Every structure is written in structure tokens, then in C-alpha cells.
Amino acid sequence: MNTETPRTPSTSGPNRRRFLTAAGLTAAGAALAAVQSRAGAAPARRPAAGAFRVPVEDVRHTRTWMAWPDSTAIWGRGTLAGIQADIALIARTVARYEPVVLCANSASAARARSLCGTSVTVISSIPVDDCWMRDTGPVFRTDGAGGLDAVGLNFNGWGNKQAHRKDARVAEHIASYAGVPFTSADFVGEGGAIEQDGAGTLMATRSSLLNGNRNPGMSERTLTAEMCAAYGASKVIWFDGVYGQDITDDHVDATSRFLAPGEALVQMPLATDDDAYAEDARQQYRILTGSTTAAGGPMDVTRLQGPDYDRIRSTHPDFLASYANYYLCNDAVICAHFGDSRADAAAKATLTRLYPDRAVEQLNIDRLGTGGGGIHCVTQQQPVP
């Protein structure tokens, strides 16, 4: 789950931006889990060396993977139905452009099929805890010669902040379903924590990955090497990030994205915004504009203006209003709108300019935004080999 750019902290009600909310962990259990160095489906081991790498996200896809939330312990009885409706809307929209496979628990598969419709394939053979497929699903890699494999990032509930017994095994189960080789990376992380340009360069926040709740005792040098080994890369552009203010510890994919090798995008706050996430976004922009790619080339960085939180529909203090958390599927860009009509239109215009050969679909996913996530957070692409 991915969370950036809130207005102010809140203490009211169950919310995905919280650490231990209604997540199915007791305080004692969470404290015990936090000292564990690894969690996941299989013993951590380095992916096989070779030409495999995670491609940039604008490549053609075989399908999109999603997951169906059904836990009232996580979401609360008054919130779950709205979250499910937003997941179904995203799934139906993506399915207009490419196949969507949605993993649902057996008890809730019928409801998922009812809301998603016949265009979405719902399977009940891969159990899930929650809907954040970007973080729980496998990271698929290609070799440029028809080969495809998958890497698991040893999902541990964003540093053992949420129950994740089922989600810890989603990556390997999807790889098995897809019929591709699977390995586990030698670090703990989530797909939303790492952006790749497909040509050797990654970007990430230290607050999320260089963190004792994921990778205790690991140095930045070692973590950089392990990330590059898993993604088939050779360079990581690091941002400091924001520690301890959301469940993800500041995932990069709601602020900065790669468009192509040597091209990136950063969602910028208003000039008057002065919270920690606004400063984080400005730092990411400064670092990216001064960085080079793995090949040594300059970085061209596009500014994507974020909305005015005083003009959006939601008044929830933890709402995530990230245009940057869009999803690329075949021939389309699926992004959110938030009710700031001027900013919504400007974001759509920017994405249309950046992706001129794709339709730009803007969706109202305010319930998901109130839960601290976005469209990229709940989708995971399987690229064409």
C-alpha cells in the first residue's frame, strides 16, 4: 500500500495510513515480528544471474494482476464495501485494454465476480489478505529473448504493521499460476517502494527500504547491490523519504515515476505546502534533476502538479491525492481525479502529452484514496516476454 502527501496526521478511526490500526496484529505481536529479519514465501536467495531485468512499465502486458479485499478486521465494516467498489471499477477499466486476473478468497469470490463483471477473471486458488498487489505480487522480469521469470520481495506487511500470512505467499503463487520460474530477493521490500527505468536505474526511499523493520543491519551499499541483483540494474537513486508517518514509510511510486530511461516525473506540491511529504517531493525533484542514469546520461524530469487539498472532494486528513500513482496498461493510462477540477484537467493534459498514443482514463477512487492508496498500488503488470 502506498501513501504520500497527506495534509495532517489524524488519530480517528481505522485507516490504512496507520501503523497498527485494525490490522490483525497485537502490539506485542508486532513488536516481536519487527525483530525478524526476513518474512515471506521462501528462503531468501539471489535471483539467477543473467540478462533478466524488470522492464520499464510502458511495455506491452500479457495481463494485469489484482487482489480482492474482504477483511473487516483491516478495513472495518463501514469502509470495506466502498473499497471493493473502487477495486472493481479499476479492474473493469483496465480490462477494457488488457486481461485482468483478480485473486479472491473463496468466500468472497462470488461478490468479486458480481461487482467486476465478466470482463475480469476472478480466481480463488490464490488466497489474499488485502488488495495491494503492487506490494504483494511478484516482480516480473524479461530477458529480451522471450524469457520471463518472477522475483518475490519477501513481503512482510510493510515492516510487520499488518497481518500478511496469505499475502506473504502471493508472489510465489502467482508465479506458479503463470508458469514462470520464481526466486526470492535477498532483501525485504515492496513493489511500490522501487521504481525502475528498464535500463539499469532504480529509485527508492531510504525510509522505506533502509529501515530496521524490513532490512535490519543492512548497509545502504549491500541493499543497493541486492536491489540491483533482483531488478537487473546497476544504479539506485536514493531519496531520504519520510520515516514513521505512514504504513509504507513513504513509497516512491506516489511521488516519482520513471517514464523511460533518462526520463522521470515528480508530483510537486503547492508552493505553500510545508509538510514533510511536500519537502520530500521537492527533495526528490532536486535529486533527480541532478542525477544521471546507469549509462551516465542526464535525467530529464517532468513536474506533475498535485492538487490543492482545499479543493478536492475528500476532507479526510489522511487522503492520498496522487496523480503520479497512475497505472500503465496496454494503450491506456489509468489515473485518478480528486475534484480539484483545474488540477485534475492539468494532470490529464500532462499525462496525455507524456503518453500521446494512450487513452487517459481518470477515475473517482476516493474510497481507496481515503484508505491511503491509489491505482498503481493495487495493480501489478505481467509483461509480454
From TrEMBL:
Domain of life: Bacteria
Pfam families with a match to the protein in the record: PAD_porph
Residues annotated as signal peptide: 1-33
Keyword annotations: Hydrolase, Signal
Residues annotated as transmembrane: none
Keyword Zinc: no
PROSITE patterns: TAT
InterPro entries: Peptidyl-Arg-deiminase_porph, TAT_signal
PANTHER family: AGMATINE DEIMINASE-RELATED (PTHR31377)
Record protein name field: Agmatine deiminase family protein
Species annotation: Streptomyces anulatus
